[in-house]
Amino acid sequence: MTNAVGLSGPSAQNTGASIDRPFVLFEDGRDEGRSLLFDAPEEIIVARSAAEVAEAFSRMEAASRRGLHLAGYASYELGYALEPRFRAQATPASPTPLLLFGAFKAPKPYVPPAGEEEPAQIALQPAWSREEYAERFQKCRDYIFAGDVYQINLTFPLYGRFDGDPMALYRGLRKRQPVAYGGVVALGEETVVSLSPEVFFEARGRDIRARPMKGTAQRGFMPLEDMARAKYLTEDEKSRAENLMIVDLLRNDLSRLAEVGSVKVADLFTVHTYPTLHQMTSGIEARLREGVTLKDLFTGLFPCGSVTGAPKIRAMEIIRDLECAPRGVYCGSLGVIAPDGEISFNVAIRTLTIFPDHSLVCNVGSAVVADSRPREEYDECLIKARFLTGA
């Protein structure tokens, strides 16, 4: 996000510890960082079924033309509703709406209240034991060796409870894992808390950028060990292969929307370091064709290939059959759309959902390829939950 969203100056800052629902908080922690609060929506746009998706996108486009800002989320299962090859089948039932966006006037800068919260220590129970994961993992490998797919991003939920203030939870978690691109969405009954390190896509005018993330290494305890693990990640053939598969997938997705010859890889295998892990990303850029709509963007790109596998459509079919529960907002996307056409969306990993009964779900996953090992992949999944458990 940039200042193009139209901040109204320091007098508009919100520094209160509590915020009246409905609202959306978005933070972009890259560069100098930016925290924006969208509150008092003029309209809430929701699609709970595939039949409601087209109208929801039309309402979003209309709100944008009226000069309003859009902020909210798209659940992973929206991808099944948008893909023509899935239309003959029922869209998997998501625990959250497929689309949920508020239409707002200009956002306000958000300043957290004085006195930072301590990070939460929330106990989580994985839906799958190590043995149950290994069983699904082997089925993924069978599909890979049968030639159905090259990679499957296999995920599972972890369950817990939280009966406190979601904003306090978010602020506390930020101490443990600074936000690359995340925030809080409290537009419906559920509350979504996202501390995502991954950008899905950003568009400014007709210029669009994507930055898939694939390849993970745990941080070392000592500086030399930590540097060695980061260096290993940059040279690890498996991680590079996983990353390159997703880069090719995103290039293909963007080519359906972009001017011929405009899709370019800006950088490959760049390692970013976070408090609990190192992760590998790559950058892709393109120039959109004239007349591409918001619905076109999501139909062409959603969900991000880094959370499905490759080829995307077949991977999504396998995911639907193998995973034990719909993903909901996890592996979907949180984002904002400014009335001038500037768009920013994340990939909703490191993301949890709190429901009205205080139940909490936090999903984790990893990419399975031909040379993956079940124990290592299961351990990688649990490492990714440490932003919430603190373990």
UniProtKB/TrEMBL annotation:
- Report keywords, A-Z: Aminotransferase, Transferase
| Gene Ontology process terms (BP) | folic acid-containing compound biosynthetic process; L-tryptophan biosynthetic process
Q: Where is the Chorismate-utilising enzyme C-terminal domain?
A: 130-384
Coiled coil among keywords: no
- Highest taxon of the lineage: Bacteria
Q: Is the Heme keyword given for this protein? A: no
EC number in record: 2.6.1.85
Question: Which molecular function GO terms apply here?
Answer: 4-amino-4-deoxychorismate synthase activity
Q: What is this protein called?
A: Aminodeoxychorismate synthase component I
**Originating species:** Methylocystis heyeri
